[in-house]
Structure formats: C-alpha cells, structure tokens
Amino acid sequence: MAGTIQVERISKYYNRNRPDEVRALSEVDLTIAAGEALAVNGASGCGKTTLLGLVGCMSRPTSGSVLLDGRDVSRLPERFLGDIRRRTFGFIFQQLNLIKSISVLENTLLPLYPGKLSMKEMKIRAERILARFDLTARAGVKVSRLSGGEQQRVAIARALIHQPQVIIADEPTAHLDSVLAAELLDILEELNREGKTVLIATHDPFVSNHPLINRVIRMRDGRIVD
Amino acid sequence: MIRLLKILEFALSSLARRKFKNFSIIVVYSFTIAVLASVLLLTHSLKKMAMDVLVDGPDIVVQRLLGGRHELIPTDYSGIIEKIPGVGRVQPRVWGYYYDSLNHTNYTMLGIGEERQRFVMVDGKAPADDDQCMIGQGVAGAQHAETGMDLLLIDGKGIGYSCEISGVFKAASDLWTNDLVLFTSDALRRFFAMPDGLATDITVEVFNAREVPQVAQKIKRLLPDTRPITIDEILHTYESIFNWRSGLMLTIFTSSLIAFSILAWDKATGISGEEKQEIGILKAIGWDTGDVLTLKLCEGMVISVTAFLVGVSMAYVHVFLLDAPLFVPVLKGWSVLFPRFHLVPYIDAYQIIVLGFLTILPYMASTVLPSWKAAITDPENAMRGV
C-alpha cells in the first residue's frame, strides 16, 4: 500500500552556524506505516511542526533522510517535490495558510489547478467537499470574511480535495469548537478507514484519545521520547 | 494545455484581486509606451512622406558656391551640364523666401516652368500667366485668401505686388505645400529683382540612376564653383534631420522612461511578503516551480501586452488621428507656418516589434525573476516570507 514514510536520523537546524542557531530536531527516527493514524504530542516548540514539514517535503533536513514508499525524497531537487506534494500529501496547517483575498471556492480549488481535471470537474469536486464541510453557502465569500472555525474548515477542504494518500494536520482542531472538532476527526477516521495515512501534531488530548489514532508519539526538545 | 488555461484563469483572477495596483501599473506603462511609440510612428511617417516626395524630385541639384555660401547660378551652366552623356532634362530654378511681416511668417516662393501641368492636388489651377500665383493652405489661412482673390506682397524693390490666386493646394499636400507660393519663373525673377541669366539652382535628371554619382563628379569637374547635390545626399540629410529630432524627443521623454524603469526596478528588487507567502502556499499544496512561474508569466504577459497594445493604440490615435499635437512642433519643421496635414499611417513593423521587445521583456523579467527566487525556496520558508 502506498503512503509508507520512514524518517531516518533526521536533524534540522535553523540559522545554522549563526549565533541564533536553533536545533529543532535531533536525530529522529520514525516509521509510519501506510494506513496508520499517528498523533505527535508535545509542548509548543518541541519540534512537532518541523517534523511534519520534513515528512511532507515542505523543507529539507540538515541531515538524515525521509523515505516515501522507500524513495529518499529529502535529497530530490525542488522541481520534483511539487508533484510529490500534490500527489501524496494533504496539509492542514496550524496557521491555515489560506489566501485570504480570494473566495472559499477558489481556495478550495487551488491544489487542483496544476492537475489534469477540467474546470468543470474541479468545480463538481469542490461543490461536494464544500457540502461535506457545510460551506456551500459560503463558497463565494472571501476567506477574510469568515470566522476562525469556517476558515479552518476551508483549510481542511483544500487539504482533502485532491484525495491525497497522506493527510498531515498540524493542530487541526485549534480553531474548532468541540462539535466541529469531533466532526473533523470522524472525517479523518473515515478517510483512514479508506486506507489514507494520517499524521496529526496536537497537544489536544481529545485528538490523541480519539479512536482514529492508532499510535501516539511524544516529543521533547526535538527528540522522540516516548 | 488544460493546465495552462486553468493557470491563466487563476492569473486573471489574481490580477483582478489587485486591480488598483495593476491598473496603476498599466496606466504608467501604457503612457510610457504611447510616448515612445508616438515618436517612432511620427518620425517614420514623416520620413516616409518626405522620402516619397523627394524620390520624385530631381536626381541632382546644382548650386553655385561663393565663399562657401549659396550664390545665384548662371543659367547658361545648364547648357554645359546638358552635354554630359546620360543627362536628361536640365532646368534652372528660381526660388527663395519671403517674410510676411504682418503675420511674422516665412513663405517659400517657387518659380515654375514647364512642370506647371503636373500639379494635381489643387483647388483651381496652376499659374498660367505672370500675374497669377498658387498658394498653400498655410499661406491662404495667414492671408485669409482663396482662389480668385488677389495676393498682396512687397517685392524685392519694396514695391507692392499683386497677383491673382489661380489655385490653392489641397490640405493633403500640406507637408510640402503649406507655406508655398508658386509663380511662373519669370514672374518670380522679377519679384525678387533677380538679374536675367541667373537662377537659384539648377535641377538635373539622369537617365540611369546608377550614374548619378558619376554625373555629379563630372559636373563638379566641369564647373568647379558649383556643388552638385545628389538625391541620395538629400535623402540622407532628411533622414538625419528626422532621426536627430526624434532622438531629441526621446531624450526629452527619457524622464518617463526613467519613471517606468523605477517602477520595473521596484518590482524586480523584490516581491512583497504577501506575494511570497502566496507562492509558498501554492508550492505547499502541490504547485511546482514551473506552475508558479507559468502563473507569474501569465500575469506579467497580461499586464505588459495589455499596456503595449493600449500604448501603441494611444500612439496611433495621437499621431494619425489627432496629428500628434504633443510632438509636432519639434518634429515637423522650423517654419512658423506649421503644416496642418494629416499624417499617412505608415508603420514600420520592425520598429514596433523592437519597441515590444524593449518594453515587454524587461517587465516580464522583472515580474518573473523575483517570483522564481521565491518559487525555488522551500515552501516552509516562503510561507513565512523568508
């Protein structure tokens, strides 16, 4: 099954060899099986977001390797990574990273622009996913005019519209009330049952204890401690 | 192809999002192109029209020089020139200038001989008798005169001179007839009090155009006090004058070029944090570097091509429909009676293409390069605006 991720002794330094150097990750080893749902716990600044970024090919490790289905993607030139990100990963960012000056529909469609679907097919798919997140009525509204919870749902819709094999979510329930958080986790559970790999960084016990999660790892100071 | 069309659609919506900024860029960009294109269109059209007139002119004009200055030439020189093999018609010409002190303008006075039947763009007819004259539109306007009226001038002896206006040149020929007064050669010689046996210059036709330089050399050898000016030299002089003037115009409007360069430089030296973040987001959700560059190329292309087309259209309207009111005093001539003619829209496609390259490509580069820098950055850094 596609979606197996192996992290081998990766370290990540920011501002390397400068007075303000930060070691975000230190020689981390981790294997995530295809179809697994893994929660990464830990306090703020422990390296959860950095780990997710490296796994999702959003940045490169200072040392070590990230293998996706056995292929080392950490050394690939940037021009190959866009395709890998599009085909493999769906990101739900902690900061949401929506383009606030465009509409809900346009934000949701963004991952599909480089793909092969026609605009008509893209819109059909967007209508379906917006309906799933109760955003149909807000489709034409600019994201900047939405509440925090609505924006979060747009970010989730955007992460799922291209049907990725691996879903990476960084504090996905941070802006949601308990009902919507439960709904989101139910959706992720459903996707996980379909065979998608789910990787969630969270310090919310509600997420860690949800039946979706197969395994929880704990991080501290850039290392996996548990 | 579908991918490109989709990205183009996104580029258009992206441009629409920043409509005020992009509209401002298009306005400044179009104005700059309009100025440059106006100078090029006007210069080329004037040159072409002038050349069209000159190529029908004499192959050689022979002037007499005295102390390096133009002097009246003996008409019997034409007999010597006629004997040179290959020479056709040789015609002494009488012409000069007349200062109209009431209107503070100069008229060009020209005497005509046998060629009087060749004028076609005339309301009326060419002067048939010595007491008739034909005038250009500028002279008619300055004198409030028309066909059938009398034109009153002061002759070379300071005595009032009256001639009947037998015809007025049509406005279409204004470029070369606007300030013109035509007499018969005899009448003009009398008007200028020019001694018999002398003319202003002599025109020479040569049967074989390739022999013009050799004939000119022979004239110079036979008549050392003359200066034969070939048609190529005249064409070259005209071209130089127009090029010099258009160069002057371009220099004057360098300020608009500089303003545009500053704008382009501002874009080239960096994109805003918001734009960087957008590029980071697009990359993070699966756009590759090529997609981002395609997007930015589409945006830059839409702006620059729109501005180019608007600018060139504005220039066309300015030059060919409005008669270039901004530049005409510099480019048309030094006479006080500026010709009020409609320029014929001769367009040099090569010049327009070069203008396109010189304006579209730098803008495209200034749009794409900083985006490329952001696009090759890790999405994580780009999203943070690093």
**Mean pLDDT across every amino acid position of chain B:** 83
Contiguous low-pLDDT stretches of chain B (5 residues minimum) are: none
What is the total tally of β strands of chain A?
A: 10
Reading side by side through the largest sheet of chain A, how are the strands ordered? Answer: 6-7-8-3-9-10
| Biggest sheet character of chain A | 6 strands, mixed
Helix content of chain B: 40-55%
Gyration radius of chain A (Cα, Å) is: 17 Å
**Tally of individual domains of chain B:** 2
Order of helices and strands of chain B: HHEEEHEEEEEHEEHEHEEHEHHHHHHH
**What top-tier CATH class of chain A fits best?**
Alpha Beta
Salient structural properties:
heterodimer; A: 226 residues; alpha/beta; Rossmann fold; six-stranded mixed β-sheet; 7 helices; 32% helix; B: 386 residues; alpha+beta; seven-stranded mixed β-sheet; 54% helix
Explain how this protein is built:
The complex is a heterodimer of chains A (226) and B (386). Chain A has a single domain, classed as P-loop containing nucleotide triphosphate hydrolases (Rossmann fold). Chain A is 32% helix and 25% strand. The longest helix of chain A has 16 residues, at 178-193. In chain A, the strands form 2 sheets. In chain A, strands 6-7-8-3-9-10 form a 6-stranded mixed β-sheet, with helices on both faces. Chain A has a 4-stranded antiparallel β-sheet with strand order 2-1-4-5, covered by helices on one side. The radius of gyration of chain A is 17 Å and the shape is globular. The model of chain A has no long low-confidence stretch (mean pLDDT 89). In chain A, a hairpin with a 7-residue loop joins strand 1 and strand 2. Chain A has 226 residues and is α/β, with parallel strands linked by helices. By secondary structure, chain B is an alpha+beta fold. Chain B folds into 2 domains: 2-53 and 240-383, no CATH class; 60-229, no CATH class. Helix content of chain B is 54%, strand content 19%. Chain B is built from 14 helices and 14 strands. Chain B has helices at residues 2-17, 19-55, 77-82, 137-143, 174-177, 185-191, 212-222, 231-252, 254-268, 273-284, 289-321, 328-332, 349-375, 379-383, and strands at residues 60-66, 69-71, 73-74, 87-93, 95-100, 105-112, 122-124, 132-135, 150-154, 160-169, 180-184, 198-199, 201-206, 226-230. In chain B, the strands form 3 sheets. In chain B, strands 5, 6, 7, 8, 9, 10 and 11 form a 7-stranded mixed β-sheet that branches. In chain B, strands 1, 2, 4, 13 and 14 form a 5-stranded antiparallel β-sheet that branches. In chain B, strands 3-12 form a two-stranded antiparallel ribbon. In chain B, strand 9 and strand 10 (160-169) form a beta hairpin. The two termini of chain B are 33 Å apart. Chain A binds chain B through residues 53, 58-60, 78-83, 85-87, 89, 91, 93, 95, 97-99, 101-102, 106, 110-111, 113-116, 118-119, 122, 158-159, 162, and chain B through 2-3, 6-7, 9-10, 13, 17, 277-278, 280-291, 376, 378-381, 383.
